[in-house]
Amino acid sequence: MDTMRDRLAPVLTRLLDGDPRVAVLLAEIGADGFTEAGRRHPDRVINVGIREQLLVGAAAGLALTGLRPVVHTFASFLVERPFEQVKLDLGHQGVGAVLVSAAASYDWPAGGYTHMAPGDVALLGTLDGWTVHVPGHPDEAETLLRHAVAAGDDKVYVRLSLLSNGDALPVDGARFRTVREGRAGVVVAVGPTLDDVLTATQGLDVTVLYATTVRPFDAAAVRRAAGAGRADVVLVEPYLAGTSTAAVNDALTGVPHRVLGLGVGRRELRRYGTAAEHTAAHGLDPRSLRERIGGFLGAAARH
Description:
Elements lengths: L3 H15 L3 E5 L8 H6 L4 E3 L4 H13 L3 E7 H6 L2 H10 L5 E5 L17 H5 L5 E4 L4 H12 L5 E5 L17 E4 L5 E5 L3 H7 L6 E5 L1 E3 L3 H8 L4 E10 L4 H7 L5 E8 L10 H7 L4 H12 L6
Parallel strand pairs: 1-2, 1-3, 3-4, 4-6, 5-6, 8-9, 8-11, 11-12
Antiparallel strand pairs: 5-10, 7-9
Helix pairs in contact: 1-7, 3-5, 8-12, 9-10
Pfam families: Transket_pyr, Transketolase_C
Keywords: Transferase
Enzyme class: transferase
């Protein structure tokens, strides 16, 4: 199966050919995929070199002229390094762009901590007006990328990962999807965590919601799944643990509830290993999830 990132250049090339507003900005990373597109559209395929602050600043400048810029590099270089430009050049000036990242939280451990960005979604959450898509499959990534480019002049972040679920589900760029129904708790699985969550909760009496768009947060779906009584909610996020805990609390205001936020821990893992080893070390593999979710929900979740 191809990866989410494998879809990026072909999809954007078709959008460049069909929409004169679309522009693509790169900072060396991924530039090879746009060689032919750059020949056809030299004024709208721009490689700024290894200058990530300029990358975002130039995107804002193009947006001010009426273009729809799509900006791509590793997450740590797209959100963290040029955060001031994301905050001011885009947000403060009131213009939009589509930021499309690669490498996610720890997809390329050999690259070291400089190439890891588990805090990206939490950091964007400090800013107003961002839509954040976290696809769990290449087909979903393609759909959400098209949604993002077509979203007028909005500010959109699309978080691509090498990690993937086995099958794609229909996604609409807004709502959570109910994958399994139960009565003893709610588990929200974000993006590529879904397969492991479904394995971990097999036989547990829980509702599983699948989230591929996490900002805005689908509070209505959580309220419906939680029901009228006391609610227990587990969040499983492929980035910093607890990133959406406040959003769940806001969704359940007035409802007695508990929230357990599972995700990537704050402790730096200095033995980089493999992505699968990082998943296990952060307690996001099926066995660990089973223990943590089952322990939190207790005997009521077991049939």
